[in-house]
Amino acid sequence: MTREPRWLTDSEQRAWEAYRRMFLLLNAQLARDLNRQSALSEPDYDVLSNLGASPDHRRRVSELADRMLWSRSRLSHHLSRMQQRGLVMREECATDGRGAVVVLTDDGLRTLEAAAPPHVESVRRHFIDLLTPEQIEAFAGAAETVVARLTEPGTD
């Protein structure tokens, strides 16, 4: 016996469609602003900001890939391009000869420090400042609930 689909109510459909449009429009706007203001792509900024927030501005490649929800192959290719631009460098892992560590260079840190203020202002202008404190709390709570469910072991 096949179970009937649980169709969305009008309210649920409205929320889903609004989220999808917001996700696409907001990400596109933030990416345009980031590129115009700092000549960085979203993936560049993601790598730089993750390294900038890491102890000693370094992280194992495998850990960085996991944090960013990227495949190791995708990250490796992106790191090669960033390394050519002098933003990051790779080192051998002292505790595991098969592993590698990616390190934020001085140029990478300066690039991140220059890009962060206008990027945060863009996030504020296009998202945070449009919402009330209550909406921000509700949004954060909803997003954290979904993330917790999707990151549970065994979730497909």
UniProtKB/TrEMBL annotation:
PROSITE patterns: HTH_MARR_2
GO molecular function: DNA-binding transcription factor activity
Domain HTH marR-type: 12-148
Source organism superkingdom: Bacteria
Single GO biological process annotation from the record: response to stress
InterPro entries for the chain: HTH_MarR-typ (IPR000835), MarR/SlyA-like (IPR039422), WH-like_DNA-bd_sf (IPR036388), WH_DNA-bd_sf (IPR036390)
Protein name as annotated: HTH marR-type domain-containing protein
Organism: Streptomyces formicae
